[in-house]
Design goal:
CATH architecture of the largest domain: 3-Layer(aba) Sandwich
Largest sheet: 6 strands, antiparallel
Oligomer: single chain
CATH superfamily of the largest domain: CheC-like
Shape: elongated
CATH class of the largest domain: Alpha Beta
Number of strands: 10
Helix content: 25-40%
Order of helices and strands: HHEHEEHHEEEHHEHEEEH
C-alpha cells in the first residue's frame, strides 16, 4: 500500500469517527432535565445521611445523551439494577448500583466502619437476599429524592417494578431510542461507588417539551431543601431581648447637674408597661409581674410590629 493510499484510508477512518461522534450529539438536549439533576445532588446527600447515618458526598460524574443500547452496554455486569415505572409519565427508567456502592452501604447498615477499600478484588457473583433488600431500599431513597427534585417542573411518582443483575436481560426501550445516562459518584466512609440512571426519551414523552425548555435562572420549583434547613437553623438561633422600663427626655443641663446621692424620679408607675426590644427594634409591649417562684415575668399585651419590619427587610434584600 502506497503512502498516499494509507493517508486516504486514515482520512476516511477519521471521517467515519467524526460522523459517529456528530450523530451522538444530534440528540435533543434537555436543559431543564440537566438543572433538575444538579438540584438533585443537593437533596440526595442529606437523604442518604438520614438513611445510612453517615455523611455522603454526591457529585455528578457523567451526563450523556446516547442511545438506549449503548447506555445499557456501558453498565458493567453484574450490577444491581432496578427497573422503575414513572407512573405519571407512563414510562420506564433504570436505576443501577455498582457492587462497591452496594457493599459499602450494606457494611455501613450492619455497623461496619471501614476506612479503606479491601485489597482483594471482588469476584462477580449473584447478590444475596439481604444485599437485594438493602439495594432496593437504597434505590427507593434515591428515587424519592429524585421525585422531589422534579417537583413542580414535572410531577412524577417512581415505583420499582422488578430487579435485574444483567443488562442483557433488561428490557427498557428499543435499542435505538435516545436515552439520557446520568452517573453519580457517591462517597461514604472513604468508600466510593456509583449510582446510574438511564432515562429513555420515550419514558418522559409527556413532559419532554417542559424538560427541553432553556433554564434562564431564578427559582426552580421543588428545590426547597435549602429553605427548610435555613428556616430550621433560624428557629434554633438564640437572640437577646432587652426590656425597656421607661424612656423620657431631659435637658442636657439637668443631666449635667446630677450629683451622687441624688434621687431621680423616672416616672414609672406600678401599672406601667415594659417595651421589649430586639437589636433596638421594638417587638412587644407587656405588663411586668412576678411568678410564684419569685422570678420576674412579662405578659405580652401588644404587638408593636417588629416581626413584620424584619420580614419586610429580608424581602427587600
Amino acid at each position: 500500500m502506497t503512502a498516499q493510499a494509507q493517508t486516504v484510508q486514515d482520512g476516511s477512518a477519521e471521517m467515519i469517527e467524526e460522523i459517529i461522534r456528530l450523530s451522538k450529539l444530534s440528540y435533543e438536549r434537555l436543559p431543564m432535565l440537566e438543572v433538575v439533576f444538579e438540584r438533585y445532588l443537593l437533596a440526595l446527600a442529606p437523604d442518604l445521611k438520614t438513611y445510612t447515618s453517615v455523611a455522603a458526598d454526591v457529585t455528578l460524574e457523567e451526563f450523556e445523551y446516547t442511545s438506549c443500547a449503548e447506555a445499557l452496554q456501558s453498565i458493567s455486569a453484574p450490577s444491581f439494577l432496578a427497573v422503575t415505572e414513572a407512573r405519571n409519565w407512563d414510562g420506564t427508567i433504570l436505576v443501577g448500583i455498582d457492587p462497591p456502592l452496594l457493599f459499602s452501604t450494606l457494611e455501613i447498615m450492619l455497623g461496619g466502619r471501614s476506612t479503606k477499600a479491601p485489597n482483594e478484588a471482588w469476584s462477580p457473583r449473584g447478590f444475596t437476599a439481604i444485599e437485594k433488600r438493602i439495594g432496593k431500599r437504597f434505590c427507593e431513597v434515591a428515587l424519592s429524592s429524585l421525585s422531589g427534585a422534579f417537583g413542580q417542573v414535572a410531577e412524577v411518582d417512581f415505583a420499582i417494578d422488578h430487579l435485574e443483575t444483567s443488562t442483557q436481560s433488561t428490557v427498557l426501550a428499543p435499542p435505538t431510542t435516545p436515552c439520557v445516562k446520568v452517573v453519580l459518584k457517591i462517597a461514604m466512609e472513604s468508600r466510593v461507588g456509583r449510582l446510574t440512571f438511564l432515562l429513555p426519551y420515550n419514558s418522559f414523552e409527556k413532559v419532554r417539551p417542559v424538560l427541553a425548555q432553556a433554564f434562564l435562572g431564578g427559582k426552580l420549583g421543588g428545590d426547597s431543601s435549602w429553605r427548610e434547613q435555613l428556616t430550621q437553623k433560624l428557629h434554633e438561633t438564640d437572640v437577646t431581648l432587652a426590656a425597656s422600663l421607661h424612656e423620657f427626655r431631659l435637658p442636657l443641663s439637668d443631666v449635667l447637674s446630677w450629683a451622687p446621692g441624688q434621687t431621680l424620679d423616672l416616672g414609672i408607675g406600678s401599672d406601667s408597661e415594659v417595651t421589649v426590644k430586639c437589636n433596638g427594634l421594638a417587638m412587644f409591649r407587656g405588663a411586668m409581674g412576678r411568678r410564684k417562684n419569685g422570678a420576674i415575668a412579662l405578659r405580652i399585651t401588644e404587638d408593636l410590629g417588629g416581626k413584620d419590619a424584619i420580614a419586610n427587610d429580608v424581602t427587600a434584600d
